[in-house]
TrEMBL record:
This is FGD2 protein. SUPFAM superfamilies: DBL homology domain (DH-domain), PH domain-like. One of its GO terms (cellular component) is cytoskeleton. Residues 3-191 form the DH domain. Keywords: Cytoplasm, Cytoskeleton, Metal-binding, Phosphoprotein, Repeat, Zinc, Zinc-finger. GO terms for biological process: cytoskeleton organization; filopodium assembly. It comes from Chauna torquata. The keyword Zinc applies. Residues 220-302 form the PH domain. The lineage of its organism: Eukaryota, Metazoa, Chordata, Craniata, Vertebrata. GO terms for molecular function: guanyl-nucleotide exchange factor activity; zinc ion binding.
Length: 302
C-alpha cells in the first residue's frame, strides 16, 4: 500500500477512537453528572457546565461530520485518493477548540475542588471510571485528549504531505489543509499562553495585596526578584524586592507577617520616565541607580 494511504488510514483509525473518547466525555460523564446535578444531588449545574465547556459541540462535529466524511473517503480511496479537501472543510471548525483548551486547567481544578467538597460527586465519577469503557483511566486523563488532538492532526498531515508523490492530485489541497491546521494550532497555543499569562499576573497581584491602581490585565510581568537597597547614610544594605512590568517598576518590602499579601509596595516608578545607571562602587559591586520622578534608589544585585 502507498505510504500516504497508510497515514490516511491511521487518521481514520485514530479519529474513530477519538470519537469514542468524546462520546464517553459528552454522553456518559457530562450527561450523567448533569442529570445528578439537576436532581440537586452532587454539585451545582453551573459547575458541571464549567468543567465540560463546549465538549458537546466538539463531539457532535466529529461524530456527525468529520468521521463520516473520512470513512466515505477511505471507502472510495481507489477512485478518489484524497483527504486534503475533507480536512480543509474541517479546519475552520477546529477553532472551537480554543475555548475548550483555554478552560482546561480551570476544569481540572474544579474536579479536584468538588471531589473534596462533595462525596456524591466523587462517588459518581469513581463509579463511571470503574466501567470497562474508561479503560482504568481517570476523567482528567480522558479530558486531556481534545487538548492533544489538534497537534496530532498537524503531525499526521505533515507526514502525509511528505509522503505524497510529487504528481499526486491531493498535493495542493493537502498543503493548504496543513497550513490551515497550523494556523488553528497556533490560535490554540496563543489562547493557552494568554490564559497562563493572566493566571501568573493574577498570582503576582495577590502577592502584592491587590492594590487597585496596579491590577490591570494588560500589564506584562517581565522580571521579579530580591534586591539589596544600599543606605548611604550608614553604609548598610537591606533586603527589598522588585517587580518589573512593561510599564512600571514596583519597589517592595517583604512583609514580616505574611497574611494575605507577601509584599508591600513602597514605590512605583513609571518605566516611561525611569532612568537606570550602573555604578562602579568598589565597596558594593553590582550596584546601579534607578531614578523616577519622585526619588532615586541605589540598589545592589546578587
Amino acid at each position: 500500500e502507498p505510504e500516504e494511504k497508510k497515514i490516511a488510514l491511521e487518521l481514520l483509525e485514530t479519529e474513530q477512537a477519538y470519537v469514542n473518547r468524546l462520546h464517553l466525555l459528552d454522553q456518559i460523564f457530562y450527561t450523567e453528572l448533569m442529570k445528578e446535578a439537576k436532581n440537586g444531588k452532587t454539585v451545582p449545574e453551573e459547575v458541571v457546565k464549567m468543567i465540560f465547556s463546549n465538549i458537546s459541540s466538539i463531539y457532535q462535529f466529529h461524530a456527525k461530520f468529520f468521521l463520516p466524511e473520512l470513512q466515505k473517503r477511505m471507502e472510495d480511496w481507489s477512485s478518489h485518493p484524497q483527504i486534503g479537501d475533507v480536512i480543509q472543510k474541517l479546519a475552520p471548525f477546529l477553532k472551537m477548540y480554543g475555548e475548550y483548551v483555554k478552560n482546561f486547567n480551570k476544569a481540572v481544578e474544579l474536579i479536584t475542588i468538588w471531589t473534596e467538597k462533595s462525596l456524591p460527586f466523587q462517588e459518581l465519577i469513581a463509579d463511571i471510571q470503574k466501567r470497562k469503557v474508561c479503560a482504568n483511566l481517570t476523567l482528567q486523563h480522558h479530558m486531556l485528549e481534545p487538548v492533544q488532538r489538534i497537534p496530532r492532526y498537524e503531525l499526521l498531515l505533515k507526514d502525509y504531505v511528505q509522503k505524497l508523490p510529487p504528481e499526486s492530485p491531493d498535493r495542493d489541497d493537502a498543503e493548504k489543509a496543513l497550513e490551515m491546521i497550523f494556523m488553528v494550532a497556533k490560535h490554540s497555543n496563543e489562547a493557552i499562553a494568554e490564559m497562563e499569562r493572566l493566571q501568573n499576573l493574577w498570582e503576582v497581584y495577590q502577592r502584592l495585596g491587590l492594590e487597585d491602581d496596579i491590577v490591570d490585565p494588560s500589564n506584562e510581568l517581565i522580571k521579579e526578584g530580591p534586591i539589596q537597597k544600599i543606605s548611604t547614610r550608614n553604609n548598610s544594605t537591606s533586603e527589598k524586592y522588585l517587580f518589573l512590568f512593561n510599564n512600571m517598576l514596583l519597589y517592595c518590602v517583604p512583609k514580616v507577617i505574611q497574611v494575605g499579601a507577601e509584599f508591600q509596595v513602597r514605590l512605583r516608578i513609571d518605566v516611561d520616565s525611569m532612568k537606570v545607571r550602573e555604578l562602579n562602587d568598589t565597596q558594593f559591586p553590582h550596584t546601579f541607580l534607578v531614578s523616577g520622578k519622585q526619588r532615586t534608589l541605589e540598589l545592589q544585585a546578587r
